[in-house]
Structure formats: structure tokens, C-alpha cells
Amino acid sequence: MNKYIKIGIILATLVIVIMITDYFATQNSPFPQASLFEPRPLPFDRINDDRQFFFMGDMELYYKIKVVLSSINATLLVILLVTYVDMYKKIKSEFTIGLILFSLTLLSYALTSNPLLQGIFGFRAFGLGPFAMLPDMFTSLALAVLLYLTMK
Fold first, then answer.
1. Most buried of 13, 16, 71, 108, CB within 10 angstroms?
2. Residue 48 falls within a domain, yes or no?
3. What are the pLDDT digits (tens) for 52-98?
4. Does residue 125 sit within a domain?
5. Rounded CA separation 63/65 (Å)
């Protein structure tokens, strides 16, 4: 397959993943809904009285970006995993097995760090501020470089 067609398919897949995860992060979020740029409220089940507490600097926007970034990471890792399995079938190298295990480990991280999955199991992140999304942003950058080097 042509290199540019592969890149186009990967980019189209990422755009579709972004649109789907943005929809689920906005419409069907298991978290208490707040405006994107307002402080995030503390979950009600952790408050002993009727007062509403907020974490200043902890905005819903950070968690929405984290949902999208961790979904992008999972998609990139699935693409890398398929590529490495295909390479292993051709080369039969131990190094390729290491890359497959590396991809599986990072895929586990990407899936378990997604706030939508955490919310499904009843856990809610709060109080993280921009640190909710920064690790996923750096992981996305590293995966983009790894995918670029793999496709070369």
C-alpha cells in the first residue's frame, strides 16, 4: 500500500476517534457536569454536608482533553501493534516481540487511564488540574514519533 494512503487512513481514523470520544465525553459523561471553563465540583457522595466544594484550577476541559488524548493513544497503539505483529510474521525477530509487548503495555495504560472507563467503574478524578491531561499529551507525542519511525 502506498505510504501516503496509509497516512491518510491513519489520520482519518484519528479524526473519527476524536469525534466519537468527544461526543461520549460531552453527552454521556459519568462525571458531574460543569461548564468547560468553570471549576470542577467535588463529587456529592464525598461531602458530608449540603455545601458544594470546588477545586480551583480544575476544569472539565482538562478531563475532556484527557478522554480524547487517551483514546488517540489507544488508537495509535493498536495501529503500532498491528504493524509490529505484521513485521514479526515477516522477520521473526526477538526485538519485534519486545516491541509487541511494549505496545501491549502502553495500550493497557492508555485504556485504563481513560476517564470514561474509570467513570464506568465508579471512579472519578478530581483535583488534578492540568496534570490530568499532561501525561497523555506527552505520551501522544512519543507515540506519534514512534509511529513515524515505524512507517519510515
1. 71
2. no
3. 555 555 567 777 888 888 999 999 999 999 999 999 999 998 899 99
4. yes
5. 5
Q: What would the grid cell of residue 119 be?
A: 467513570
Read off the DSSP letter of residue 54.
E
Q: Are 107 and 81 in contact (CB under 8 A)?
A: yes
Selection from 18, 147, 123, 126 nearest residue 62 by Cα: 126
In the chain, how many domains are there? 1
Q: How much is the pTM?
A: 0.71
Cell of 12: 482519518
Domain membership of residue 49 (yes or no) is no
Closest CA to 147 of 73, 69, 68, 96: 73
